[in-house]
User: What shape does this take?
Amino acid sequence: MLFPGQGSHSVGMGRDLALESSAAREVFQQVDDALGFSLSKLMWDGPEEKLVLTEHAQPAIMACSMAVLAMLREELGADPVDQAHILLGHSLGEYSAYCASGSLDIAKTALLLQTRGQAMQVAVAPDQGAMAAILGLDTALIEQACIEASSSGVVVLANDNVEGQAVISGARAAVEEASEILSQKGAKRVVPLNVSAPFHSPLMQHATGVMAKALEQSNFLDPKRPVLCNVDVVSVTDRAMAVDCLTRQVEGRVRWRESIAWLQNNDVSHCVELGHGKVITSMVRRPMKDAVCVSIQGKKDLDQLEGVF
Assistant: This one.
């Protein structure tokens, strides 16, 4: 069971789902109540420039995932999480995974993600950080370029998504220098990302401290189903390990390519993405050619689950 991360949000997200499912509407209401304002109205009506703020986008993406899960529980008359071999989320999606697994309730998850978004936003002064997507190069070349550009500041491989698709993050000058080096090394494309901070880099140290405290105070429970840790690519089944992984995740690399390899090595045959968009499904489907990979966003997608649950 897969949960998307930042970048999967857009104005209108979750609106159709709320109209067709009372269980989904309840999830959106719980998130609104927890945050003290109508995030759902922002999700459905915009404006986009406000929705894309990290403190709003992160709980919004989680809310859509949990609303889809609530709809599935209502329609199936059972909890599909109970049949999942492992739960896996991309970056903030790991919080959605723990919420689905019963470690956190929806309200607490929304508050944690709001805190995470705010902490990541203020960790670096505006315009001082940057991220860039690198397409068509091996990770070893990307890491070498980051080392070569380090005289200009911190820059690291932040997201190792799939073969030939990665993201670097760090100080703006260093990211720009590394991007130029990688273009010269033959990258198919180097795409500066429209983000508010250099996520998953050592520049997020302040946010790590904030999240360590917030997670320790969150009444986090052991997950009822294992969750695959982004930074270590290990199956997590207890509270202490989960809190440690989520704390280190703020600065740590999202090892998504290795996570997909873990799924393959453990004979996972079906992957179901819950939430807005199909980004995660597309990233998993490419390397897992023999697996059934589906994206569930609403009732219209239920027929794709035949033979899965």
